[in-house]
Amino acid sequence: MIMQSIDLCHLLKNKLKGKDWVLKTNNCSEIVFQKGNSDYDFVEISDYGKRGYKVTLPMKTSRFSYVTHITDPTEVSEYVGKFLKG
User: Considering just the CA atoms, what is the radius of gyration of the chain in Å?
Assistant: First the structure.
């Protein structure tokens, strides 16, 4: 899944470009974007191997996060894109 993570990072960079999100971590098992200097606004994608990806998104009205699991990297990108539009 290492190559898929690299492709996923590229897809996410394009979705988050110009929206004040900064890439903080990009390695074989985790991709993390942070919005501005916020202590709470993080988009985190962790590679769970055969189980797919754990996706963590900030809740807009809280300092807590929402977590879900998605198996396909393209679906992860679409899911994050919907979050950004909402």
Answer: 12
